[in-house]
Amino acid sequence: MNASNTQIQMRKGLLEFCILHIISRGEVYASDMIDELTEAQMIVVEGTLYPLLNRLKKSGLATYKWIESESGPPRKYYTITEDGKAFLATLDQTWESLVHSIQFITTKH
Amino acid sequence: MNASNTQIQMRKGLLEFCILHIISRGEVYASDMIDELTEAQMIVVEGTLYPLLNRLKKSGLATYKWIESESGPPRKYYTITEDGKAFLATLDQTWESLVHSIQFITTKH
DNA sequence: AACGCTACCTTGCATTACCAGTTTCTAGGC
DNA sequence: GCCTAGAAACTGGTAATGCAAGGTAGCGTT
């Protein structure tokens, strides 16, 4: 039970939330997402991201289309679906509730 | 991939954080903790709490002593250790960082 | 002594993130 | 054409955690 492991565990499930937000703003592919997450200090590796994207696709929350690159292999550009938008709205609420709950517990005299 | 499951996943690792905060305020036993968490709208069941408390004990972050009840079997009253206080301080920082990261991602134009 | 309640604990399952690779595809040099 | 380098997507295997559904034991009441 060390701090780095706890950090990982705290982030569990929040990645899905972050990815949905990122793809809700426009078409991006995996490397773009990693860049954005890294900028926000949420380090993610490819091996984590790809299974997550496949889960989102399989659940109908996200979709993608192949777009050829000017240099290199084609890329999967992801976008959010209508179902994804609705789901994201509930996740926003869940996150708000969670923040309030933690606030309540951590600030109690 | 439904909302309730996501809710569960989002809370992963945060329970440990909450429990440490609760026992840092004084001696409590399991039912007290569940009451406090429920009041904060963090639903927890016994099967989740007891293994977590054993982990905290085994890691030296928390300790307990048996106290007899006026009505019923004796109870384990938990308190935080010095190591637990130090660990809790790092968790406070981790939580702050996490909130900032999510804030950064969810509010980006 | 039989029952119910309380408190503590255990087992099996599902989910998720990480690590360490592998495969596929394109571009460019020989 | 052939080979290498690099980018992009993907794939087991492992570890950690929460949940559901139980089980065990002590205490008081009837």
Automatic annotation (TrEMBL), chains A, B:
Residues 19-89 form the Transcription regulator PadR N-terminal domain. SUPFAM superfamilies: Winged helix' DNA-binding domain. It comes from the Bacteria. InterPro entries: Metal_resp_DNA-bind_regulator, Tscrpt_reg_PadR_N, WH-like_DNA-bd_sf, WH_DNA-bd_sf. This is PadR family transcriptional regulator. It comes from Belliella kenyensis.
